[in-house]
Amino acid sequence: MLVLSRREQEAIVFPKLGIRIEITRLRGKAVSLGIEAPDAIRVLRGEIATAEDELDSNAAEFAKAFQEASTQSLAKPDSAAREREHELRNRINTLTIALHLLKKNAARNDGIVDDSLLSGAIDELSLIEETLHDTSAPADLDQVGKKAALPLALIIDDNENENALMSGFLRSFGFRVAVALDGNAALRLIQQSAKLPDIVLLDMNMPGLNGRGTIEAIRQNPKTREMKVFAVSGEDQATCDVPIGEQGVDRWFRKPIRPDHLVQEMAKGIHNKQLVC
Q1: Beta bridge pairs of residue 21
Q2: How far apart, in whole angstroms, are the C-alpha atoms of residue 203 and residue 190?
Q3: Which residue, of 3, 45, 158, 269, has the fewest CB within 10 Å?
Q4: Residues 29, 106 contacting (CB under 8 angstroms)
Q5: 171 and 111 in one domain?
């Protein structure tokens, strides 16, 4: 990620997005920013906009952009349109997680914004723009963290950037986190470990063993068949032929997700009242 240091009257410019951020004044811990951005991009102060307001506005803007892009691509084959939709949903989901993590960190640090997180969020927004206009796992789950009393979440997803953001978000709520980049790696990780994850977040569209094959293997193994598994995917449940219930996943969350809502449902799913949601 890009980390920038700027002095007073210096600026950061994002040419592809038409965004310019200038440091207008520095006074102790307070920083005054001047922001120029297109009308389509809302700029809100955290103390004015609630998390719900921010999420609703982002979702509405991206939904509109996505609808326009979908309308323009009706002539494409179904498989291409579906792949493009999945990619866009993943990008929006990554950005949403980054924005939530950025807000949470700023609240803990007297409003000071983490440049690396901000840069990561803007980078992801740039990738979303390009998509719209374009016609290492641990060796053993037992070694994840030292606070064994904390619930352990296993993320199975091939998107490394999204995994890093989601891991940070979950840890801020009291989870320990392990990551596997595909189903085969996840199954090896589980098999080699004495302790099972308390909950699994499973993507569907992955290279190697995909989400459907992974959940089938989990449910067929006596050791893992009772594990709590939430699908978190850009795919629609109806098109994946993966049931919700004893033979499939416990819940289905379609990207872009609401990270705070997902954490609340994870806490309910594992009956953990100690998580700070």
Answers
A1: 12, 35
A2: 16
A3: 45
A4: no
A5: no
What's the domain count of the chain?
A: 2
35 forms bridges with which residues in the sheet?
Answer: 21
In 3-state terms, what secondary structure has residue 268? helix
CA distance 45 to 12: 18
Q: In this structure, what is the dihedral angle of CA atoms 34, 36, 41, 42, given to the nearest 10 degrees? A: 30
State which residues form the domain around 217: 141-269
Q: Are 87 and 120 part of one and the same domain?
A: yes
- Write the DSSP string, 203-244: -SS-SSS-HHHHHHHHHHSTTTTT--EEEEESS-HHHHT--B
Instruction: Record the tokens describing residue 274, joined without a space.
Output: 């100690």
Is 10 a domain residue? no
Residue 151 covered by a domain: yes
Residue 242: φ, ψ to 5°: -120, 115
Give the dihedral of Cα atoms 18, 19, 25, 26; nearest 10 deg: -150
Tokens standing for residue 80? 């291409």
Nearest to 55, CA basis, from 107, 14, 87, 97: 97
Q: 9 and 22 in contact (C-beta within 8 Å)?
A: yes
- Amino acid, res. 248: G
CB 21 within 8 A of CB 12: yes
